[in-house]
Amino acid sequence: MDVMGDKATLLETGRFGEPADVSQSTGDMSVPEFPSPSASPMASSVTDLERRVNEFVQSADRDETGDAAEEARQRLAAETGDVEAMSVLGALLLRRGDLDGAEPHLRAATAAGDRAAANNLGVLLHQRGYADEAAGWWRIAAVAGSAAAAHALGRHHRERGDEPAAEYWLRQSAEQGHALGAYALADLLEHRGDDGAGAWMRAAAERGHREAAYRLARAIDRKAAQEGETGTDDGAGASLVGEAEQWYRQAAARGHRRAALHLGAILEKRGQLKEAGRWYLTSAKDGEARAACALGFLLRDAGDSESAAVWWLRAAQDGDGNAANALGALHAERGETQTAERWYRAAMDAGDVNGAYNLGLLCAEQGRTAQAEQWYRRAAYAGHREAANALAILLLQGGDTGGAEPWFSKAAEAGSVDAAFNLGILYAGRGEDEVALRCYERAAAAGHTEAALQVGIARLREGDERAAERHLRCAAGGGSTEAAYRLATVLDARRPPEPAHELGEPVRERSECEEWYERAASQGHRRAQVRVGMLAAARGDVVEAARWYREAAEAGSRNGAFNLGLLLVREGSEPEAAVWWTRAADAGHGRAALRLALVYARRGELAEGQRWADRAVTLGPAEVSERAGRLRDALREELSA
Questions:
Q1: I need a surface site. Which of 50, 359, 499, 504 has the fewest CB within 10 A?
Q2: Tens of pLDDT, residues 387-446
């Protein structure tokens, strides 16, 4: 029995596996707030955001001397009783980590009513471990209008499980335009399943929060995927993907490594490989193992296996099972089986079930059947459908049909197209044709070429020519030579009779059935080659006919050998024709044997003619047997005269 499952290729799970989303807040309660003469909420306009980014860059470029001078200036002002200077000096020292130096200045500024100092004093106390006292100062600052303090206070309440209080203060912060507050509020509402989460996540993203931009992109991505799966996509899917891309791009530009990974995947799928590679590289350099793995695949596809191996190694060392599998496959291709096995085991240890499956493939290729079965079972029990199919094939080859069937069934139910087809072969071998046909139909619906051929053949037997044609077209389009031939015969039977070819008549164009015959013939189908030769001969193209007859005859077709002999006789080459008829007759062709009997009778070799006539009588068909019998009797009388 012919089992068609694919047992010898590395299973690739894609450029990167998709872990569950982690709700990760990037809001940091320990960042000091500097006092401002105006309200403190972050401006939402692009112009103001750019201005503040420029100010940050300029401040980052100061040298240590400049920082020391600024601190000295603020210290002098603070000593004169300047409240704002006290607050700024306390914030500078807090940011540096000098908690002891910062605390007296912050307390003094707080006592004078500075809300930024109250917030920063809360930050300082929180860092010292006095969370409740910190919350008290944050409350004072929040009531005074500090969005940063409201955000910190909201997070404090959430950490203690007081969600109503957390929502109240986070909403106060978010409504003042604070990006961290908007993100934390969105995270809280999303956790509760509140529909308002999306709006606040978008608000945080629009205010420059990179994690919010990433999570917004993921949510849009999922929505696009759901619409695609349910078939409700009315053209909005592409728009959603485009929107997701923009948010991924915004988050990636701010250094979000997972956003860079997803952006690279979108660009790769679109065919923009160069830009995809740049984002994969950015993400990989930031420590994203999946991006390093995806970059490796991109390099391998470009023909640079050595560079691919470098990135796969980096990803595998960071625990990426897919990269470890890829390294295993690379070493297996080079014949380095021990190294390949080591990496497959590493993939398995990383939780990638493909590692066990690939170990099974490796052992099977080496003839280590017992070990292969062991690894296939391990992967199959973990839900690996192709491993279940491979295990069933292994059991079937060992004669354990009863053990193979449930694994074929499990694999087919899990979506393995090969397993559904193999299950059909199993049932067909038992004579359970109806059950087999259902299995074939399941596999054919998923695009399995050979399964579509089997369904087409079954429909032909039932007389449902239209359904047969539909399935045969699918199989032939998928590359099945037999399907191309059978489709051609279906179409050939519908053709009206062709008028006889006359000298000077233009040669007609090839029909669709001839095109399918020729496709099958070019792929080595012997009956198709004979039929193409017959059609060429009918057109008067003797050279083309001889070429196809000869190809079929040399491949073992007795009809091809017989027809080639007929063509050669017409061209005056009877000795060569006799050679091909002999080949056909030896293969069981009755008409060829009768032709040989006639050839030898004309030559006067009566005994040889009688021998071939006897053979023709035996081979048939009926009319040939009748003619050969008369010839044999005549030759016998001539020999006995």
A1: 504
A2: 999 999 999 999 998 999 999 999 999 999 999 999 999 999 889 999 999 999 999 999
Read off the pTM: 0.70
CA distance 561 to 337: 48
Burial of 58 (0-12, 13-18, 19+ CB in 10 A): exposed
Residue partners of 493: CB distance under 8 A and separation at least 6: none
- Calpha distance 96→73 (Å, rounded): 17
Length of the chain: 641
Spatial distance between the Cα atoms of 320 and 331, rounded to a whole number of angstroms: 17
Q: What is the pLDDT of residues 5-16, one digit of tens each?
A: 333 333 333 444
**How far is it, in rounded angstroms, from Cα 58 to Cα 599?**
105
**Of 160, 159, 153, which Cα lies nearest the Cα of 180?**
153
pLDDT in tens, 5-51: 333 333 333 444 444 343 343 344 445 666 654 333 323 333 443 44
Q: Which of 244, 205, 242, 239 is nearest to 221 (CA)?
A: 244
Answer whether 517's CB lies under 8 Å from 531's CB.
yes
b/e 497-526 (16+ beta carbons within 10 angstroms → b): eeeeeeeeeeeeeebebbebbbbbbeeebb
Tokens coding 482: 């037999």
Cα distances (Å, whole numbers) of residue 28 to 2, 117, 124, 291, 330: 64, 17, 13, 27, 44
Whether 313 and 284 have beta carbons less than 8 Å apart is answered as no
